[in-house]
């Protein structure tokens, strides 16, 4: 996943607000990171790169509710339902908050609901839009999912401890006095700390934490299934689908993990081109062999023909000339065609007229409709003649070999 990941500033958006960011081409490793105003954030270097906004842990709160039966993510009354369920849990007025639900919403079971200041989020999105960095997804810095992990972050002057896992997300000051507010945790609970507060975290937690830079944490946040762009912040289904298709196509074209697939596709195209050329060469060779054989048959049968231009036509002319010389009857001659006509079923009425011209025999009066002519036409077809009824005229011509 190629992405520009932007951490939203906790203060209200302004022209001078600084955004911390990470640029990645594969969604795993950070190509670059830093801090800049919205208008100076890196521009996507290739098509399909999406902008992902990360909501800081301090700007979001989590609540667990049970949705009533029949509630779905597409329900137009879902926000009203959430406002009613959370009314007693919220410190702010529900109208001032933005709500977001997990990717899979089911009624009748506990689900987590994320809330944050609606005006703050709208201003941040508008600032990025104005800077030509429209946000495709909004993800939380931490989400209540997976195994519980303790995160120590911030700076030594204002260190923060965040517990994130299946039991929710809790944000507290990184101090020994705050540990009593945490739920009971196993001894093997994983601890992760930014380098600036790693020593303090080890002192408070009495456990050596793993080191993790903030950009790596935002990369992990961008891989979350959560998308807070819901309700008024959601894009249309068509826009989301087109964005996903564009991102997937761009990743396929440039992402390192797809390098083997790209080489395989190129190799497959090359092999197909080579195969098609080999097949075409073989077909051309077979066709040329047939042409040579036809020329040999013509010159071998009629030695006086020195040049074979169109062997089938020349062969037909030579056979016709030979037949005329020997007096043999051709299947296109009047005698042969009348013989074929007389060998079939006897017509129900006598012929009124017979016309012959250039291999075409016309007989009038022996059939007045298709049903009467059908037996005779079938018999003629069995002898290699084509017959068609045109009004009361039966037209007979030489066809293929029976």
Automatic annotation (TrEMBL):
GO terms for biological process: protein secretion by the type II secretion system. This is General secretion pathway protein GspL. Residues 30-210 form the GspL cytoplasmic actin-ATPase-like domain. It comes from Ramlibacter lithotrophicus. One of its GO terms (cellular component) is type II protein secretion system complex. Pfam families: T2SSL (PF05134).
